[in-house]
Amino acid sequence: MYPTDRRYTKEHEWIKVDGDTGTVGITDYAQHELGDVVFVELPKVGAKFEANQPFGTVESVKAVSEIYSPVSGQVLEVNSALANAPETINKDPHGAAWLIRIKLSRPSELNGLMDTAAYQAYISEKQKEVSA
Amino acid sequence: MSERIKKARRHTSQSEGLIFEKSAPGKRGMELPPLDVPPVDPRQILGAAHVRDAVEGFPEVSEIEVIRHFTRLSTWNYAIDLGMYPLGSCTMKYNPRVNEFVARLEGIATEHPYQPVELSQGCLGILKTLQDCLLEVTGMDGITLQPAAGAQGELTGLLLIRAYLESQGNPRKKILIPDSAHGTNPATAVIAGYEVENIRSNAQGQIDVARLKEIVNEDVAALMVTNPSTVGIFEQRIAEVAELLHAKGALLYMDGANMNALAGIARPGDFGVDVMHLNLHKTFSTPHGGGGPGAGPVMVKKILEPFLPVPVLAARADGTLTLDFHRPQSIGRVRAFCGNFGVLVRALAYTLAYGPGIRQATEDAVLNANYIRKHLESHYDLPFQLPSMHEVVFSDSQQKKHGVSTIDIAKRLIDYGFHPYTTAFPLIVSGALMIEPTESESKEECDLFIDAMLAIAEEAATQPALVKTAPHSTRVGRLDEVTAARKPILRWKPEASGEAAD
Amino acid sequence: MRYLPKSPSERQEMMAAIGIQSVEELFHSIPASYRLKRPLHLPGPLSEMEIIDYFRARAAENSGGYTSFLGAGVYDHLRSVVTDTIIQRGEFLTSYTPYQPEISQGTLQAIFEFQTLICQLTGQEVANASMWDGSTALTEAMLMAERLTGRRRLVVARSVHPEYRQVLATYSRNTGLHVDEVPFAGSGQLDRAALGAQINDQTAAVVVQSPNFFGVLEELPQLRDIAHASGALLVVAITEAVSLGIVRPPAEADIVAIEGQSFGLAPSYGGPFVGVIATREKFIRQMPGRLAGQTTDNQGLRGFVLTLATREQHIRREKATSNICTNQALCALAASVHLCLLGKQGLRELAQQNLAKARFAATELEKIPGVRRAFSGPVFNEFAITLPRSVKLVNTELLKEKIIGPLPLGSFYPELTKQGLLCVTETTPRAKIEGLTAALRRILEKPH
């Protein structure tokens, strides 16, 4: 379910790194929690963010969630296709619905993120809490 | 349809398109008296560049079509006049018709805010009497009737706090807001230039006084508290909370949204509140009108009086009333003119109808809420056990086991002939059902409501699909809110322009 | 009490069901020391007849019998009994904000129609379901311009309604917004040279009113060019909405803030009225206030819902676009009904009548020696005149003739003590205009 080629945050973002460039999105768990996504707000290319700083929002009909940058860096590209097709986030959160590409300024921050196994354990704990 | 649905039965309702779709050139619904001065050429007077063509797409319909159009639309609405409207926190009580009548009187509705005060003594007298009444009900010292609604009252109250603290040398930085508060509170605090610190309620849904002790410091300007809180329970330690704040130089703001649980019983001014607002469309019965107009008077203790918005109502030596604009410490104006005067007229008419007997209204409202609680508490989960005041909050945790949530139960209530209660608020209760009957409901209506809720609890267990797909009896079924938000259509356009209306 | 539907024995039954002996027990959760031990000192109780008598007596203490020429943001226009009949239907009057669309389609469709009517009138792409009034709508429009541009300075024409500017001052004081005011020229229009000097790359918006407080139309296309050249938005306030029947709509504005009182709402000593914000579609996420949107139900039938609610305070809390929640829905409904009755032709005729009457009044007044138009710019139904002496003193004399004279502009602009503002609408008969001119002539001819 959760691809092994990337790392995950406790806020349910994923980041897939290629060289010094990271691609960031939200996880399937996050899109499921949010429900039908109706709007995405993304930063401008060139904007700089610190790790754990919000860089955008994802909205459903009755909720707004901030999206936090997994790492520090500068935005290289944003997925502008989402503006007209926010539902992509529900359909393909780990693929077509990537949000931004970011140039990592401190690649060592990746070490603080969860790998796939750790994230899966993390969300199964979450699901237990909810059903309890 | 369930045999237990007693309050309502389906009947035919008229279909009706948009008014623009009925339009045909040459029809009209109003005629003007003939012009009694020489006609003019607009292009000559204004200059051609300032003159427009006829308004494109504007409706052309006759008077009877206007009447039928809006009457048909009206029949698609639920209303207090049809039955119980148990929206918690919204206080949907009876809106007396005499209030509508007096607000429309010649000499009341016709008055201009800039006419001389000598010719406005009637209007000013109404405002003065209402001020005196609201001060007596709340036990406060000073008042402004200017704010246009509760949210603006909140802002006014916080600006008063800010101005007062500034006059003491430091406006401070933070407003503390319990996590049970209305969303308006934090939104308002930001506009007043403050940071918001949310504080968690304790296990009883009450303010966590121990926690409060830790966080109140010289950065805190005020605590905004709703009392009774949004779970319908009186804040037992409110006076202690006030002392705690005052000891650190901070003030206590009370959101008076739930004043209908206290009128005639207890006065915020007596338990330490420094500033509060009232929603006249809640406690004082002015009609909600599908979402306004309201009015949000703000009451203050003496220390805050110098900062009230201008103008302030004042008495002259000869006993006549006037408007005082010369208030050097005032926060300024929050709205043009004298506030929603017509709403204030209605609120005074309501108050005069009851007089001191307003206490009976409070008693009946609390009686109704507790009567409903008693009958439902073994079928719906009650997260907080403290005694209820004017409303009761359940959670859907028992029904969730069958996959039925608060919104489903709410929608099913529609089939039983009721407006839903408030769903999913307050946020501190997961899957909240927030029920406020108000004093306007008879025992019979309360019994019908209880019966409907019990029937739905049973349906949730035995035929959850029926509840989850409700309502089944309305003109339209559940609407596609997702598409509405993804591809907003916010106005009608003629079909030729490509965006078909239907 | 006639509003309470319970008999004494029903109250007893209900208490018994709850398991309490007395009503007092319902309030035991309030600490005893804070429970009121006396009845409230309130006037009443009054019967329906006594309530009517009380308010009739207050009404008699007001301006009955006087002729008024006041406008300045509150206008006396025709109102139809049809409008009042509709808005007094309980299904509209006594319903809540339409959060439950299945049983609120009436209100929702009416709001959707209101939004459409406002768009048609203003030449804008989207309009909200109402704001509290014109002054708060304009303030919200300016806060919106700040969010859209990320800039913190506003350039506001001094010819914007003075009380609107006061409201803006109250709101801006604590949010770090800086407001510069631009003077007016001899035409009564904003002084464009002064604007050019004040605007810069920190300016979020240029804010004007048209017709402005002096009744004069502003040159919006030129103002748009100046604003946009600096990357600022053009915000236009309209307090006299009937002008939209004949005056070119503010299509070049980025945000329009309207007071809709002229569309069928009584002056009512200043409220309740109905504000509205209209703007471009691309700015919608930063627009405050409720919005009704069209959609379909599970059967594919057309229906309406409140939409884009994530901008609002009940969801976004401290990050909301505004704290507004209750707006002026019933007033918006009244405006819709009124506009539908007027229709395309009626609105045009109404506006033309206002224009003709104001022109007639101005011409007649200018025949009085010493009286002249204060400003040369084009006006709709309101205009300022200059008198040979203080307007306040003249008004004292006019009051003796049962005429409420021009609004003294000196109350708001210290340099304009001899200038007064007059409004003439379709409800002002020619005879009353002639009565004013005759009285004014007599007063000014008298030595003082």
TL;DR of this structure?
The complex is a heterotrimer of chains A (132), B (502) and C (448). Helices cover 20% and strands 31% of the residues of chain A.
Give the secondary structure arrangement, pairings included:
The complex is a heterotrimer of chains A (132), B (502) and C (448).
Chain A: E1 7-8, E2 13-18, E3 21-26, H1 28-34, E4 39-41, E5 48-49, E6 54-59, E7 64-68, E8 73-78, H2 88-91, E9 100-104, H3 116-131
Antiparallel strand pairs in A: 1-2, 2-3, 3-9, 4-6, 5-8, 6-7, 8-9
Chain B: H1 42-46, H2 63-74, H3 97-103, H4 121-138, E1 142-144, H5 150-167, E2 174-178, H6 184-191, E3 195-199, H7 209-215, E4 220-226, H8 238-247, E5 251-255, E6 275-277, E7 298-300, E8 312-315, E9 321-324, H9 341-354, H10 358-376, E10 392-395, H11 397-400, H12 406-415, E11 422-423, E12 432-435, H13 443-462, H14 464-468, H15 481-486
Parallel strand pairs in B: 2-3, 2-4, 4-5, 5-6
Antiparallel strand pairs in B: 1-7, 6-7, 8-9, 10-12, 11-12
Chain C: H1 8-18, H2 48-59, E1 67-68, H3 81-87, H4 90-93, H5 105-122, E2 126-127, H6 134-149, E3 153-157, H7 162-172, E4 178-182, H8 192-198, E5 203-209, H9 220-229, E6 233-238, E7 255-259, E8 275-279, E9 292-296, E10 302-306, H10 313-316, H11 329-366, E11 372-373, E12 382-386, H12 391-400, E13 403-404, E14 407-408, E15 419-423, H13 430-445
Parallel strand pairs in C: 1-13, 3-4, 3-5, 5-6, 6-7
Antiparallel strand pairs in C: 2-8, 7-8, 9-10, 11-12, 12-15, 14-15
